[in-house]
Amino acid sequence: MQKKELVEAQAAILLKQLRFRYQGATADVIDIPDWRLEQGEKCFLFGASGAGKSTLMNLLCGVLQPTSGEVAVLEQTLTTMSARQRDRFRSRHIGVVFQQFNLIPYLTVEENVRLASWFANNAGGAAERELTQRLHELMDALQLKSELLQRPSKELSVGQQQRVAIARALINQPELMIVDEPTSALDSYARDNFMQLLMNVCSEHNSSLLFVSHDLTLQSYFDSSVNLADINVAGERRR
Ligand SMILES: Nc1ncnc2c1ncn2[C@@H]1O[C@H](COP(=O)(O)OP(=O)(O)OP(=O)(O)O)[C@@H](O)[C@H]1O
Asked: Which pTM was predicted?
């Protein structure tokens, strides 16, 4: 038997008995007994407002710590890492786009995007040239004019800020992209362009993608789709 057959396929995300309750709350928001995302899989996650989607995103990125249970990303258990190790792991391996973009308002667009690379220790030498090229390619693909690079991000429109947040998430070519409701401020033309770009980049790098949205029309871009209520038994109890 070949070695490959002996090794279980690697999971991009693996959740086991994952529970989360906000401090002072009387019930869990998240209670997921078992769920996995395969490496290379592009998954669309949807659910009603308040179902716990953003909470789950924050648990997957290591921004929130579970009340109990395990979160593993790319076969690394986030729950046993120190806060510093989690930050380092996230910056190197996970591209995150939050609903609120989290750009630093007084830094320019270029500085915001380069900061992600700096955090991941990717700067210097040939990598610097490659980085500049990738930055321009991303700006182009996301239809952001290059003159915007030197503008403080606070001077950009909401749609432009959203695309900068996406460029920042993609700059390190992460193995896993976690994207929370990113298309809501884009018009349909820009949205289709963005979806195509995201799918192309993820396929090129065999990146896994977990994409959270209310916009069910986007489902057709994905390999799989999951209603959070179907995997989250905390949600089941509340229904
Ligand atoms: N910081 C917090 N402290 C206490 N409760 C919170 C906090 N953040 C969210 N919640 C509660 O947790 C539940 C899930 O919220 P969450 O934001 O994860 O839902 P969501 O599915 O992302 O919603 P939406 O689609 O509206 O963004 C809600 O009942 C919300 O009120």
From this structure: 0.84
